[in-house]
Amino acid sequence: MADNPVTEPRSRRRFSDATALAAALRPSYPVYCFRPHKVRAVARHFVETFPGKVVYAVKCNIEPRVLGWLAEAGVTAFDTASLTEIAAVRERLPDADALFMHPVKSRAAILAADRVYDVSTYCVDSMAELEKVLQVARRRDLKIFVRVATPGGGAAFELSIKFGATQAEAVEILDRVAEEGLQAGIAFHIGSQCLNPRAFRTAFAVIADVWRGTKADVREIDVGGGFPVAYAGQPVPPLEDFVTEIVEGRREAGIDEDVALLCEPGRALVADGCSMLCQVHLRKGDRLYLNDGVYGNLSEPYWSRVRLPARLIRPEGINGGVSDAPLQDFTIFGPTCDGNDLLPTPFRLPADVSEGDWIEVGQIGAYGAALATRFNGFFADAQVELADEPPDTA
Ligand SMILES: Cc1ncc(COP(=O)(O)O)c(C=O)c1O
Prior knowledge:
Elements: E1 13-15, H1 18-25, E2 31-34, H2 36-49, E3 53-57, H3 64-72, E4 77-80, H4 83-92, E5 97-100, H5 107-115, E6 121-124, H6 127-136, E7 143-147, E8 155-157, H7 167-179, E9 183-187, E10 192-194, H8 198-213, E11 218-222, H9 239-252, E12 260-263, H10 267-270, E13 274-284, E14 287-290, H11 300-304, E15 310-313, E16 327-333, E17 347-350, E18 358-361, E19 382-386
Parallel strand pairs: 1-19, 2-19, 3-4, 3-12, 4-5, 6-7, 7-9, 9-11, 11-12, 14-16
Antiparallel strand pairs: 2-13, 8-10, 13-14, 13-18, 15-18, 16-17
Helix pairs in contact: 2-3, 7-8, 8-9
C-alpha cells in the first residue's frame, strides 16, 4: 500500500479510469480525480448558452488547474470574495478579469485589490461599504454592483438572509454611485442549487423597482449563481429553461435589452468535474467506514441532503475482483472520531463490498475541497486526472 501522500509531491498522474488508478496506486488515502474534459465541456455549454458574460465563482473550487480548464473553455472573468481568490486568478490567468463581489470587505483587502491586483469592479450592499470602497480605492474608473436581496424560491442554500440591500436602500446606494460618476450595476443571488427557474423571474420583478427608481445609468445586471446540478435522484430543469426565465424576467421588468447580463455560476460549472476515490477501511454489517467524510470532501450531503453518486472500484486481484453481487444500501461513516461524521443518505453498492475496496464518489468538484477541514489529521492531498465519464447519477 502507498503511504499517505503528505510527504509526496501532488500527483499529476493520468489514468484511464478509477479502476486503473486503484490498481496502480492502491491508495489508502483519498484521491481527487479530476476530469478536465468534463470541466471544459460543461463550461463550454454554459458559455454558449448564457446570453451574457459567465463569471466563475472561485469559492466553489479554487484549484488553479480548474481555473485554467475553465479559461480554455471560454470563461474570461472570475467572481472572487477574498484576496486569496484574487491572487489565485491573477497568478494562473493574468489576463482574466477578477471581480471583487463579496459585499463585505476589509479595508486592507480593498487596498490590496486596488493597488496590487488592479481590481476595478466591486460589489456592495450597504452605503457604509460603498463609502469604504470610495475612501480606500484610488482608481476612479470603478464599477460598483449593488446587491439586492431577492427571495430564494427553491434554493438549497438561501443567501439573501445574509446579504442584499432592500429596494429602497439599493436606490439610495446607486444614486450615490451615480453622484460619484462611477459605472453602476445591479446584482442578486437567488441562492445556491435552485431547482426553480422561475426564481430568476421573481428576482427581476424585485430589481425592476430599483432599476426604475435610481438615477444611475445601470448598464449591467448580474444574476448571480444558483444554477443547479443534477445530483442523484434530483432531476433539474436544463440550463436553457433558466436562461428563458432570465431573458423573460428582464423583458417583464422593462429593463432595456442592451443592458448586459452577467452570471456567477460555481456549482453548475465544476461539480461534475471531480470525484473522490475513497477506500473502505472497515465494514460492520451494513456500515462502511471510509477515509473521507463530512469533515472532508463529502460535506454537501450533510448541509443540503443532496445525494452523491457512488460506485464500487475493485481492480482484479482485490477481494475476488469484479463484483456481481446485488446492490444494497450502506450507511457511510467518515474517518474522524465525531459521531456527526455520518452521511445522511446511504450509498447503494454491491452487497459484498469489503474492507480494502475503493468507492468512487462523484460530483464533489463544487464545494468539496472548498469546505474540507483537517479535523483529526485527515485530509485529501493527492490529485490525478481521469479520462472516462464520472459515476452515473441515475
Ligand atoms: C456572490 C456569489 N456568487 C456566486 C456564487 C456561486 O453560487 P453557485 O455555486 O450556486 O452557482 C455564490 C455562492 O455562494 C455567491 O455567494
